[in-house]
Amino acid sequence: MEVDEPSSRPPGCSLRHFACEQNLLSRPDGSSSFLQGDTSVLAGVYGPAEVKVSKEIFNKATLEVILRPKTGLPGVPEKSRERLIRSTCEAVVLGALHPRTSITVVLQVVSDAGSLLACCLNAACMALVDAGVPMRALFCGVTCALDSDGTLVLDPTTKQEKEARAVLTFALDSVEQKLLMSTTKGLYSDAELQQCLAAAQAAAQHVFRFFRESLQRRYSKS
Amino acid sequence: TVEPLEYYRRFLKENCRPDGRELGEFRTTTVNIGSISTADGSALVKLGNTTVICGVKAEFATPPTDAPDKGYIVPNVDLPPLCSSRFRAGPPGEEAQVTSQFIADVIENSQVIQKEDLCISPGKLAWVLYCDLICLDYDGNILDACTFALLAALKDVQLPEVTINEETALAEVNLKKKSYLNIGTHPVATSFAVFDDTLLLVDPTAEEEHLATGTLTVVMDEKGRLCCLHKPGGSGLNGAKLQDCMSRAVTRHKEVKKLMEEVIKSMKPK
């Protein structure tokens, strides 16, 4: 079921065109494909499922994230991103309802045209919803780029990211837009951080509205 | 302790921690520079019980083809089974890889060393600095200890003068003439643990990290610019709490810089 976001954007929030498709893979319990401009990530969720005794936690579910890059073998940067995505999911998934089980999120990068980590986070969230994993809130990823004269660009393309002085990626929750995860590249000041965070919180509202509309359309048809 | 979380909550209600520290207090930091004679630069940092040693070795390499006037800095963090029972022998686990990536990002973002300074002859010869950080005792807050150890070791590195002989096209190393590296900025990391979604504890121990609902690391340079805001998931934070973290990071930076300057000054007459 494919849903497209209208291409006209309100001024001051320059996010690229979004698209999301759910339940496209047959084997995982939940799957989604998230497109942001030309960046595309495919996510699959297996769970709650059997967990190895060495990895089991007695009172909650064990979350695992596997991120596969478009080309080559996963390396140390992928491990670092997996840890970020996993900790974000652990903060929202109600693991206590499924103790001694495992929830695995597998992400495959299909194409990378900037804001990759944010797209991975969005795809993971949609896939978790599609799998029916209980969560206490939704989360979304937003990327901001600061260029040399301090102008903010939301959802930058690869070219904008390369030319930027700093690139900040945030994961925000849907209840109060609190900061769940942040990872940054480059140098920036404290005031610029607050500015980016405010812009990201405004953009997150749009992303969550898109999530809600796409889910409403999907479930209203069936 | 049967109920570790309840035990901690009782202390936090009185605004202190079981080891007697305030919520915003760091553990005793000690640094020892230049202890490894076989390395070009070294430093040992102790943050309470957490011990990290950093050794820097400089070797020759050909510069990368897409940047012929740059050298390399290659950090590697090793968390051996010696430091904690949670690490097994074998290939680096997730924690070690994530910490290595974090240190690589800090070096890249803060521009602590300009890679152009490491170039000897563009396109032909450049220095590569292998920075090996080994944790000897893991008691939480490994990111802060590693960043400090790396910075202290880099300040200790002395590179010999290298000239390319015109006739033989070989590099001649003059070991008698050594010079220190040009350190541009001084990135200092400050880590916090989030408890029960509300309280922020500075410099968490291993037990506090385990009980925490989230962690946050801020890396700041002396001009107050942020090199890295590393928050891998965990409970949400709002803007006001982030501001408190920033101000604490600024004070920590001053403390660390003062400590390092004292140690370097006491070492100078070699």
From TrEMBL, chain A:
Bilayer-crossing regions: none
Superkingdom, taxonomy of origin: Eukaryota
Keywords: Cytoplasm, DNA-binding, Exosome, Nucleus, Phosphoprotein, rRNA processing
UniProt keyword annotation of Plastid present: no
Single GO MF annotation: RNA binding
GO cellular component terms given for this protein: cytoplasmic exosome (RNase complex); nuclear exosome (RNase complex); nucleolus
Domain Exoribonuclease phosphorolytic: 15-134, 138-202
Biological processes, Gene Ontology terms: nuclear mRNA surveillance; poly(A)-dependent snoRNA 3'-end processing; rRNA catabolic process; rRNA processing; U4 snRNA 3'-end processing
Localization, UniProt: Cytoplasm; Nucleus, Nucleolus
Keyword Ribonucleoprotein: no
UniProt xrefs under Gene3D superfamilies: GHMP Kinase, N-terminal domain
A Pfam family of this chain: RNase_PH
Self-association state and partner proteins as the record states: Homodimer. Component of the RNA exosome core complex (Exo-9), composed of EXOSC1, EXOSC2, EXOSC3, EXOSC4, EXOSC5, EXOSC6, EXOSC7, EXOSC8 and EXOSC9; within the complex interacts with EXOSC3, EXOSC8, and EXOSC9. The catalytically inactive RNA exosome core complex (Exo-9) associates with the catalytic subunit EXOSC10/RRP6. Exo-9 may associate with DIS3 to form the nucleolar exosome complex, or DIS3L to form the cytoplasmic exosome complex.
Family membership: Belongs to the RNase PH family.
Designated name of the protein: Exosome complex component RRP46
TrEMBL record, chain B:
The organism's place on the tree of life at top rank: Eukaryota
Major localization class: cytoplasm
Keyword rRNA processing: yes
This protein's GO CC annotations: cytoplasmic exosome (RNase complex); nuclear exosome (RNase complex); nucleolus
Keyword Cell inner membrane among record annotations: no
Listed transmembrane segments: none
Organism whose genome encodes this protein: Jaculus jaculus (Lesser Egyptian jerboa)
SUPFAM superfamilies noted in UniProt: Ribonuclease PH domain 2-like (SSF55666), Ribosomal protein S5 domain 2-like (SSF54211)
Pfam family, one: RNase_PH
Entries under InterPro entries matching the protein: ExoRNase_PH_dom1 (IPR001247), ExoRNase_PH_dom2 (IPR015847), ExoRNase_PH_dom2_sf (IPR036345), Exosome_comp_Rrp42_subfam (IPR050590), PNPase/RNase_PH_dom_sf (IPR027408), Ribosomal_Su5_D2-typ_SF (IPR020568), Rrp43 (IPR033196)
Family from the record: Belongs to the RNase PH family.
Residue ranges occupied by any Exoribonuclease phosphorolytic domain in the UniProt entry: 25-160, 187-250
Protein name: Exosome complex component RRP43
Keyword list, A-Z: Acetylation, Cytoplasm, Exosome, Nucleus, RNA-binding, rRNA processing
Gene from which the chain derives: Exosc8
Subcellular location: Cytoplasm; Nucleus, Nucleolus
Biological process, per Gene Ontology: exonucleolytic trimming to generate mature 3'-end of 5.8S rRNA from tricistronic rRNA transcript (SSU-rRNA, 5.8S rRNA, LSU-rRNA); nuclear mRNA surveillance; nuclear polyadenylation-dependent rRNA catabolic process; rRNA catabolic process; TRAMP-dependent tRNA surveillance pathway; U1 snRNA 3'-end processing; U4 snRNA 3'-end processing; U5 snRNA 3'-end processing
Gene Ontology molecular function: mRNA 3'-UTR AU-rich region binding
